[in-house]
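Milestone M4 deliverable, item 7.
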Amino acid sequence: MNESKDALDVLKQTSRTFFIPISRLPVGLKEAVASAYLCMRAIDEVEDHPTLDNAVKAQLLQQMSSSLQAGGGRTTRNHFQADWGANAELLPDVTLRFGDWAALAPDSIAPRIWDATAAMADRMAHWASVNWQIDTESDLDRYTFSVAGAVGLLLSDLWAWHDGTLTDRTQAIGFGRGLQAVNVLRNYKEDRQRGVSFFPEGWDVGDLQNYARRNLLLADSYTNSLPKGPAKTFCQIPLVLAWGTLDTLALGKDKLSRSDVMALIAPFTNRQPVESVK
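Output delivered:
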């Protein structure tokens, strides 16, 4: 099977939100963004695993980081390995195959993707080791930068690599932070059931909604400033879904309905229907 098609098939299974914009990217950029997304999804599945002990999560994330840091000139899947041990039976395929995703990246940008993913894995390991303790807004900023703001910076580098598109990097951080803040709002009840809260001390849902909106306004500026082309096309779909989700949550609903999703993304997908969104 073609490696790019295989990656897109896995991407479709893990996140229809990002499958749509990634699948529409031009050749080269498509493989780079798919590699970055799947590498980061691989480590994210470790961080968010419902049953793994925090110490085990930290150990696995550090191993994955070390494997990526060893990359350089050798981009075969076998070069990127981690010792899963008995945990292999508990981990999803997208994590176990992270070497495939690392090897998918085009040679000229692969080291940047490996570096970004390795750094994120190390940061995730830290947060797992302290049980994601967030006491202040500064703590929340550090966390949302660790797992999402840094993704915005990587995307800016990918746009520049592909066609020279330059972006405001502060707004790029806001793009990532805004999407992550919406995810926190979507999942905070489940997070609390596993003993984790991303709410600074004294914050309620309204405070976190305001935090998300402040960062999504930066994301708006980031996306609106992009020239017509693949970068803008990519950013529009997750951003419109983030705003839609935030508005839906503010109304007391759990998530966007399928019809809501289709209506929101129709202007960016030539009105082609999609089945659902993660």
